[in-house]
Amino acid sequence: MFYYLFTWLHKAFNFPGAGVFQYISFRAAMAVMFSLIISMMFGRRIIEFIRSKQIGETIRDLGLEGEKQKVGTPTMGGLIILSAIIIPTLLFAKLDNVYIILMLISTVWLGLIGFLDDYIKVFKKNKEGLQGKFKVIGQIGIGLIVGITLYFNSSVTVKERVYSSGPKSTSIDAALNQGAEYKAPKYAKEETKCLKTTIPFLKNNEFDYNSLISWVCKDCYKWGWIIFIPFVILIVTAVSNGANLTDGMDGLATGTSAIIGTTLGILAYVSGNAVFADYLNIMYIPNSGELVIFIAAFVGACIGFLWYNSYPAQVFMGDTGSLALGGIIAVFAVAIRKELLIPILCGIFLVENLSVVMQVLVFKIRKRTKGLEYAKANRLLRMAPLHHHFHKGGLHESKIVSRFWIVGIMLAVLTIVTLKLR
């Protein structure tokens, strides 16, 4: 909203300082500040309101250290995160941008699914919450919306790289090393629709989903959306559930999401800027730079929420926050064509997911082959997800969270390095 107001003031009255709202960097900085203010200052009021309604967390008895102290801690704090994301985005982003609209829809959609789950747990006193099949249906629904929008919407385009005649080089470094004249690649004037995405660690690192189906027939090349849309649904569901599983310790999911969000912000900025995209030899996605404002609000909301969620937590985000955080990360990565980097960037979520799958799978195999008692006595992990395995092993909760953050930072650095490491 402020963007349109100050743009009008700048054009109509040449209002001093109003032109600064044209810069993405400035609006992103303002989005961070506002999200921090909302989450930190108004967060306490929301926590007090939740506590007044006696909306406390019901803790399952898992035999973990410090577990009993968490009983009654206010939950549904994800409302703080959602507010701190949505409000700054509405204030500072271009609201006619298809990517911003898609991110806002995804945030609200997944937030509502999580809210329903928490509502059933807290108010209906049903520890199971929303049935798993309904969660999955909701995740499939938003994945379908995202996939269809990114494929069919005319505003979702890329600019293909073209080269001038003569010696060609994909980078200045390569030209110098090969002793060839550097010819800077240019982007085509016309924007095109395609299903290309980024593959890490490869020199010509663009992959077209259409190629997966082009072998069927000549006319099938443009039917790549048959593979793309289900893949988007899979990514959204997997990452959303991964964040949900990671939300088992004070500050773990929040801090990890902030690290991931910061990395995605860098990737969005360079992908939406023709100069940086050209220099890094990556795909240029027009209008995607506006996503930096959204992800800035996302990071600010996560950091602000840590003020209350770090150990010992004064509030839990609940599924209202965790499902939304994971879904936002997944949709954002797909929007900037970096979804194949998710296994690296979201390595914490991936390992948490795999730890649960492997724990159940190994237990079932051992139960079938050697009996129930043997399976119970010889589990793969002390407890799943993985963070509970370490907690059960005697490590303090805050130490586990800190170490997971360190690993998350290492994965984030590796993700950024893939821009040049090919």
Q: Describe it for me?
A:
With 422 residues, the protein is mainly α. It has one domain. The chain contains 16 helices and four strands. The strands form two sheets. Strands 1-2 form a two-stranded antiparallel ribbon. It has a two-stranded antiparallel ribbon with strand order 3-4. A hairpin with a 7-residue loop joins strand 3 and strand 4 (206-208). Helix 2 runs parallel beside helix 10, helix 7 (225-246) packs antiparallel against helix 11 and helix 8 packs parallel to helix 11. The radius of gyration is 23 Å and the shape is globular. The two termini are 41 Å apart. Mean pLDDT is 87; it is low at 165-170.
Quantity of strands, as a count: 4
Portion in helices: 55-70%
Largest sheet, if any? Answer: 2 strands, antiparallel
Tally of distinct domains: 1
Distance between the amino and carboxyl termini: 41 Å
